[in-house]
Give the backbone structure.
Amino acid sequence: MSAALEIRDLSVRYASKGFALDGVNLTIPKGSIVALLGANGAGKTTLIRSVSGLLPLHSGQITGGSIHMDGQSILNMASHKLVRMGMGQVPEGRLVFKQLTVEENLRVGAAVLPRSTEKERMDAVYDLFPRLLERRTQSAGWLSGGEQQMLALGRALVTQPRLLLVDELSLGLAPLIVSAIYKQLKMVGETLGASILVVEQNARLALDFASTAYVLERGRISLHGTAAEVAASDLVRESYLGVAQKGAAS
Ligand SMILES: Nc1ncnc2c1ncn2[C@@H]1O[C@H](COP(=O)(O)OP(=O)(O)OP(=O)(O)O)[C@@H](O)[C@H]1O
Ligand SMILES: [Mg+2]
């Protein structure tokens, strides 16, 4: 069975910079949740842009390697095609359209759907996030940060993606809201049988949520394994979980 996403030897550079990714390998088995950890500037967002076809928008270029989704090459494929193939994305910085209403934002996400399924899919998102239903006619710019993040997630989920890429869901949000959103995300993943890649600064949260994890350091994968293995590694304990170097006792 082919993986939901298979990245091999991926190298990327930006016009104004040297390599941002250098020989990256990463696999998302079907139906699983994979966490990608790494410090600021490690290349996490670059990896997501490479997969979702958004690299050219940022003057970035794939210089080598391969990317397959469900066994099919998607290298340099345009993002609207990828959405039709079942890819969903929650971009960094909750990019909702602030002047549009909540409902209009969801419609943008649903634009690739046949008209006949649009309402049903939007209702499914409202079921998941009743807060969005209450605010449906309000401008997205008036929503709180957490509500905007729900909207960004709802907009990605409205197409019922098979592969969902989520970049920094927790940024700037209160812990309670974050764990509520993650719980819903997990439930949605299970219901849809979707595979999920989460980029997270909050390593503890991501390692709780994911089955597999990768650590990216300066454009290279320095560690990967089950979430439990990665959580137990010295590198992650010290650099990402804030656990001091262990002494005699462990
Ligand atoms: N559009 C761009 N042009 C030039 N360099 C870029 C561009 N976008 C990112 N970079 C550089 O590529 C490297 C990786 O950046 P990236 O945004 O992928 O990191 P990140 O791991 O997502 O960091 P953060 O946790 O801060 O979001 C950094 O050195 C960054 O400065
Ligand atoms: Mg980033």
User: Anything to note?
Assistant: The first strand starts at residue 5 and ends at 14. Strands lie at 5-14, 19-28, 33-38, 60-69, 72-73, 87-90, 163-167, 195-199, 212-217, 220-226.
